[in-house]
Design a protein that fits this description.
Strand order of the largest sheet: 1-8-3-6
Number of strands: 11
Radius of gyration: 22 Å
Largest sheet: 4 strands, antiparallel
Distance between the termini: 70 Å
Helix content: 25-40%
Structural class: alpha+beta
């Protein structure tokens, strides 16, 4: 009878593998209402944050006052992990958002003394770099139609995996989308209307839509070869052709 109890005791002493997100487990949850800034570009980087619920936008303001959104953050994402002395951007709640924060110095100490956390932080920074490179390609080489399609495709893949007709939430405004994609609001609205008319997407609710043709959305994003066309005159797209 002693052996099973010993096995139980031995099993109970096994510690779960450390992760970056596990550092935030004991921290209190803070709530930010839509439009509220978590921090501003140039503020002293005192904390690292984990997104628990909601959506954030991160952006910079150019010298002429224009806003450039560099990304959107979702539950599970970490915010402010660059370990710079100042935040490089402003982080603002798009929806009602819940966060946990961890003191910057303590976060660095945990990373420095943990052989498990260091490669995870490196992977996180590499993901940020890859996202920045994707954004450079999107803004420099893709047409307006490809940009909007790429945006919807990323959200569909991230939130709902491989579902054939996923319903995706789009809580950001058309202005948010325009500032992220380097387009005007009118261009974003026209492109969304074309996608709807072509049957690629369909409204589901005020802030949600059904992706009815996920494969053709990928074609429009420039990630595949088009095999059919919707109609002539859609902005001269060559790499991405509007489907039927």
């Amino acid at each position: 009878m002693s052996q099973p109890h010993a096995a139980v005791r031995q099993f109970a002493t096994v510690k779960p593998r450390a992760s970056l997100n596990s550092l935030f487990g004991g921290q209190p949850i803070e709530t930010f209402e839509p439009g509220t800034a978590v921090f501003w570009e140039g503020d002293e980087a005192r904390h690292v944050f984990e997104v628990v619920e909601g959506v954030l936008r991160v952006f910079r303001i150019l010298s002429d006052g224009r806003r450039v959104i560099t990304g959107f953050l979702y539950p599970g994402d970490l915010l402010g992990v660059s370990l710079k002395e100042q935040y490089l951007y402003t982080a603002e709640a798009v929806t009602r958002t819940k966060l946990r924060r961890y003191e910057h110095g303590r976060f660095q100490d945990e990373i420095n003394r943990s052989p498990e956390l260091r490669p995870q932080l490196f992977a996180c920074l590499c993901d940020e770099m890859a996202a920045a490179q994707d954004q450079m390609v999107l803004l420099a080489r893709k047409s307006a139609e490809e940009r909007v399609a790429s945006f919807l495709l990323v959200i569909a893949r991230r939130l709902l995996g491989d579902e054939r007709q996923p319903v995706i939430e789009i809580p950001m405004t058309r202005l948010d989308m325009a500032d992220y994609l380097g387009l005007t609001i009118e261009t974003v609205s026209r492109t969304m209307t074309r996608l709807t008319n072509c049957g690629v997407i369909a409204p589901s609710s005020r802030h949600a839509m059904v992706v009815r043709k996920l494969g053709k959305l990928a074609v429009l994003a420039g990630e595949g070869d088009a095999d059919d066309k919707c109609a002539a005159g859609f902005g001269g797209v060559q790499q991405a052709v509007w489907p039927n």
